Amino acid sequence: MARTELIERRYPVPDGCQLDVGNVWGSIMVTGAELDEVHIVAAKHCRRWQEAEATEIDIGQEGRRVWARTRVHAREGWRSFWGRRVASVDYRIELPRHSHVEVSSVSASTHVNSIEGEVSIHSVGGSVAARHVHGPLRIRSVSGNVAGRELQGRLRLETVSGDVDLAESDFSSLETNTVSGALRIATSLHSTGEYRVRTVSGNVELLVPAAARCTVEGESISGRLRTSLPHSPHGRRLGTWRIEVDGGGVRLRFHSVSGDLILTAVGERGAVQAAGGAGGEMTTQARAEMRPTAMDILRAIETGQLSVEEGVGKLRQSKRGMEVEHGKQ
Fold this sequence. Notes:
Blueprint: E1 3-12, E2 18-23, E3 26-33, E4 37-46, H1 49-54, E5 55-62, E6 65-72, H2 77-82, E7 88-96, E8 100-106, E9 108-115, E10 119-124, E11 128-133, E12 137-142, E13 146-149, E14 152-160, E15 164-167, E16 170-178, E17 183-186, E18 195-199, E19 204-208, E20 214-220, E21 225-227, E22 231-237, E23 240-245, E24 250-256, E25 261-265, E26 273-274, H3 284-290, H4 294-303, H5 308-328
Parallel strand pairs: 2-6, 2-8, 3-7, 3-9, 8-10, 9-11, 10-12, 11-13, 12-14, 13-15, 14-16, 15-17, 16-18, 17-19, 18-24, 19-25, 20-24, 21-25
Antiparallel strand pairs: 1-4, 4-7, 5-6, 20-23, 21-26, 22-23
């Protein structure tokens, strides 16, 4: 028979706190408010007695540090966990707005709202949502989507196999690394900020103010830059390019294997074309410039960006592309 066990704790923290939350199944919701205490409510949902015994909730305080963690007893082993004989736990936590928050989860959704302080989220197999977070933000996500709105401060983002959508935000600096998910990030560009975007195969769309000025430096095997903003192309050589948007400005560095960088103005609905192209179509010369050379591909294999099999495939594609265009001339 299903049953729910509730645990509630309150800890005074008049000057804010350092919150550490960990969960292996269920959900985590952390909300900042005008409080001088941490209020934690944990709900453990069990269907069998084995789940109750296997799952322990550990909540405590030591000075400014407060923690709430789900622990799985070692005697149950990995078979019980992956067999879902672990209780689901939902955490609802309210704390002072000016706090440091660190969250780690496996197969649990994470929501962090209204925090003015450093936030770190590490999620595997669960979704992540953040809103009204003002301060350094680090998100590491594997096999889960990430959504955010009204975020400010430095952002460091690492994702594997998950889509990202961050809207109405203002990042003073940005560093992203993604393997296969699509990224969509809306932010202003600060003159003193550093903006670095790395992707293997996922496209990255940056939405910036229409009057933004930036200098884009890109390096890619087969990805390209697409933008509808006024720009001055500076050519492409050995898989690299550099363009100035509206005269140039903040440096934006882009590195990919096959993902594209899409640079548009916030709220823009117009067509986006390849930088240096005509209309939405690329000329034969532009296509040839965008195609990775054999040296590019061999360099990617050497640095581990491509496996040998992937590299051989890229070399064959490049050769076929040259043969087709040679036949058209």
